[in-house]
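Justification of computing resources. Each target in the renewal requires a structure prediction run like the one illustrated here; the chain below, 707 residues long, is used simply to show the kind of job we budget for.
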Amino acid sequence: MKTYILFFFLSIMCMITSCQSSPGSIRYPETARVDSLRHYFGEAIADPYAWLENDTAAATAAWVQSQNEVTFRYLAQIPFREGLRKRLTELMDYPKYSSPFKKHGVYYFFKNNGLQNQSVLYRQASLDAEAEVLLDPNKLSDDGTVALTGISFSNDGRYMAYSIARSGSDWNEIYVMELSTRRLLDDQLRWVKFSGMAWQGEGFYYSAYQAPEAGKEYSNKNEYHKIFFHCLGEEQSADRLVYENRQAPLRTCRASVTDDEKFLFIYETESTSGNSFFMQDLTKAQNPLLRLVEGFENDYSVVGHYQGKLYLLTNYKAPRQRLMEIDPARPQRENWKEVIPESKDVLESVTIVGGRLAALYMKDASHHAYIYDLAGKVEYEIKLPGLGSVATLSGEKDDNEAFYAFSSYTFPPGIYRFDVAQNRSEIFHKAEVSFEPEAYVSRQVFVTSKDGTRIPMSITYKKGLQQNAKNPAMLYGYGGFNISLTPAFRVSIIPFLESGGVYAVANLRGGGEYGEEWHRAGTKLQKQNVFDDFMAAAEYLINEGYTTSERLAINGGSNGGLLVGACMTQRPELFAVAVPEVGVLDMLRYHLFTIGWAWAADYGTSDESIEMYRYLKAYSPLHNVKEGVAYPATLVTTADHDDRVVPAHSFKFTAALQAVNRGGKPSLIRIDSKAGHGAGRPIGKIIDAQTDVWSFVMYNLGMKPKY
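Resulting C-alpha cells:
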C-alpha cells in the first residue's frame, strides 16, 4: 500500500461528525474507500476497506476510536442501561466452583468469590481440610486481563507447569511452580500456542511457533508449528525439537504422555478436526516414533493407559464415535479391539475412573452418562438431575470417588460428588444465584429445515407466557466445527427472560450433536444448510406465535458470527436485531490471517477451486451487503487482541453496512480493548460487554425493562 494513502486515511479519520441526541439518529464516521481489487479465477472483486486489515496502522486506530465514540454515545442514551448493568452485576456475584480433581492425594479446584476478574486455583489435603490458594491469576495484572489458560502436574508430584494469556490473545507463556513451597522457578517459555504441557521426568513437551514479526503478532499467518521438550532449569533456546513437519507449514501438532510416562503420543492436524496419530514407547532407549494413522479423515484421542492396555476414542468407521483398546506390543490399527461400539447416540468422552469406564453420551443435544466395565459391558446409567449438560466427569483410575458438574438453561450449576461403586450422586456445591428457576420453563422442539432435516431447538421463557406473537425473542446458534450446544446455565440471559423475553438455541448442522455426519452436512459446499437450519428455526418461532420478525433478534459468536452475518444478509426482513460477535465475515480472505487456514476443512478456501470460490462468495457476509436494503439493527462486536478471528472481519463488515444502510436502524461496532476472542476475559469486561449487547438488543426490540 502506497505511503501517501496513510495520510489520506488520517485526514479522513479526522472528519468525524458527532452523534445526534437520540439513540435512533446516528451520524457515522466517514470511512475511506480505496481502490483495491482482489482477483479470483479471472474475476476482480473490490475490497475498498482492505486498509482496515492493518491492525497496527495509525489510520486503523483512529477509525476504531471514532467508531467506539459513536457506539458508546448511542449506548449511553439507552435509559435502562445502567439498571441492567446493576442487575447483571448482582446476578454474577455468587461463588462459582469447578469440580474438584485429585492429584497425588491432594484435591484441587477453582473458585471465584463472585466478582473476581479471574478464578483462583486452590488446594486442600482433604475435602474437610482448609483450602489454601495455590495460584491467584488476579495478582498477575492490575486489571485482570492476564488469564490462567492451563495447568499440568508433574507425575512425581513436585511441580506444576501453568500457562497464561495476556489480553485475551491465543499466545501463551508457560511458567513452573514448585508445589511444596509455591516457589516460581526461573523457567519461562514464550510464543506458545495451541499447546498442552505433557510431563516426562524433569521436563515436559509443549507446542510453539517461532517468534512472529514485531508488530504483526496478532495478524500474521501462523506457520510451522513445532513440539519441543523443555528440561527444567534450561533456557528455552536449549529446548529439544521433538517434532516438526517442514513439508506442511499449515498444520498444528501437540503431544501427550501417559501418566505412567511409558508412552508418548503426537497428534498432527491440518484443520480443527481429523488428525494423524503417532506413538513412541518411552520405556526403551532409541525407540522410534511410529505413525499409527495417516491422513486427517478421522479423530483419534488416547483416553489413558490402564492395566497394560491403551484406550482410544475415535470416529474411525464410527461417525458417532466408539472406544478402542490397543495392545502396546501390537499398536497398529489393524490390531485394535473394539470395547464400546458405536451407538445411535454420540459418545462424547470416556474417563477411566474407579477401575471402570465412565462414558458421556449426547442424545438430542443433552447429556447422558453411563458406567461400563473394562470389557465394554454397561453396568448402569448415572442418574442426572434432568436434561442438561455435564462437565467432564473427573476421578482417579483406581479411586471410587469422582466429581461432575451439571446445569441446564433453568438449573444453576451444581457440583456433584459421585460414588462409582454405589452409583450414588450427592450435591457437593450448589450455586446460589439470585434467580428463581421454578418460575421458568425450558422445552425442546424439533424444527423442519428447508430440505426436510429435523433440527432440535431449546426454547426457554417465563411460565405463563402467551404464544400471541407479541413476545421479544432471541435466537442463538453456532453450527460448525463439530461443536455441540447443550443446555447450560447462562446468567447473562436472565434479565431478558425476566423482562418477558423468549430465548431459543438451535442445534444446527455443522455442529457435533449427531456425530461426524451431522458435522459434515454443514461444511464446505453444504454450508448453506447451516443458514437454512437457522432461518427455519426463526420461522418456527414466528409461525408458532412466540414472536414476530419485528421482535426477533439473532446472536452468535465466531463461526456463530458468520451465521448471523450470513442470515441477516440473506433474509434481512426476517430479523429485527442482529449481533454478530467476533465473527468470520470475509470468507474470501479468512485463511490468510493467524490460524484461519485451519478452518478450511469446514469452509473450503477461495483459492482451491472456482466452484469453492463462487460458493464462498455467495454467502460471505462482507460480499453480500447490498445498497438499498433495510438491514436489522446491528451491533458487531470484536476486540483488539483477537488473534483467532482477526478484527478486520468485523471492521470491514461494519464499514460496508454503514456505507449502504438506508433502513434507519443502527449499524454499530463495539471494539473491546485488551481483550481477545473471548477466553479469559475478566469479569468486569464480561459484565460491560453483556450490558451493552443486551441493552442494544432490548432497546431495539422495543422492550422497557424495569431496571
